[in-house]
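Below is one such record:
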Amino acid sequence: MRGTYDILIRRFLTALVALLALQAGSLVAPAYACGCGAMVPDASRRIGVDREESAVRWDGRTETIVMRFRVHGDAERAAWIMPVPSRADVSLGDPELFDQIDRLTAPERRDRFHFWPREDDWPFDTGYGDGAGAMPGAGTGVGVVGRERLGPFDVARLTATDPDALGDWLRTNGFDLPERLTGALRPYVERKWEYVAVRLAPEEEGAVLRGELTPLRIAFASPEPVYPMRLSRLAKTPQTLGLAVLADHRMEPRSAIGGDRPEVTFAGRIERPEGAVAALAGDRPVHLTVLEQRFPHPERIDGDHHLERVADTPYREVVYTDRLLTVAGIPAWLLTVGGALLLAAVAVILAVRASRRRRAPVAGVRSTA
């Protein structure tokens, strides 16, 4: 019996050691994330993107993308690259933009009443709730248009005629991106696109990249609204993209490009843009379309998001709160059932009385039985 016990203990300890080793490995493995490309930390560090949000403004000639990342991990530096179809201007974005968009697109809330009690309603509930639910390049083939420091970002704007030279330049200049990025860049090099390479590094020495990063604003000429996504195929974990599009009409992606079908969570006309939205889109009326999309298998991503005009049908999510139907604070089902029982009781009483009257002898008549 003791021998069996010792074997079980050894097996348990072996499994525990293996589990700890696996966990330790996951902590030092680079985490790839970012809808615009591969975000890679320094060696032996990790970084993850909790959420990527982008707002796209297209006025028919110029496209502006404002991107915000919410990250976690222990990396002090990380890098990513974004291809763009033409020369880009890069600046810091307004953090208020996304909060304002959230307010404009908040779901409509409605009450939805039910007649019969549910598990959170009296008499089934256990509490008192109401039932609410709820510069030149270092190598041939690369040109440096500009390089500047913007807040926590070291930004290089590049041209390239050779994907291998571009990859070499990035790695030589501190943009530590994966070797396999070179092949993924080839389609953009062939189309003569340009590139915005970004190194993220906290302004405070020794600090790590964590929380909500300052938005980055990238503007370039484009005959159609396009959101670069092809490099996201390098990601190792499922990706989620939140995209808000400001244009003259409702805009949606032409295809899913290898992910789940894009879901429209808001579509509507903003008559009087204000604040950060007006700074991006102007003070004239504009259509705002908000999309959510998941990429469970990033390796299947086969292109960029090309956005096209669709019918200007408005849409807003509706969130229902389920409530028990009441009358003057009394559950309607209780009044109905109680009333029915009362009527039934009255009917029974009346029937009994009528039956007694029929059986009672008539005065002055003597029974001869």
Notes: The longest strand covers residues 47-58.
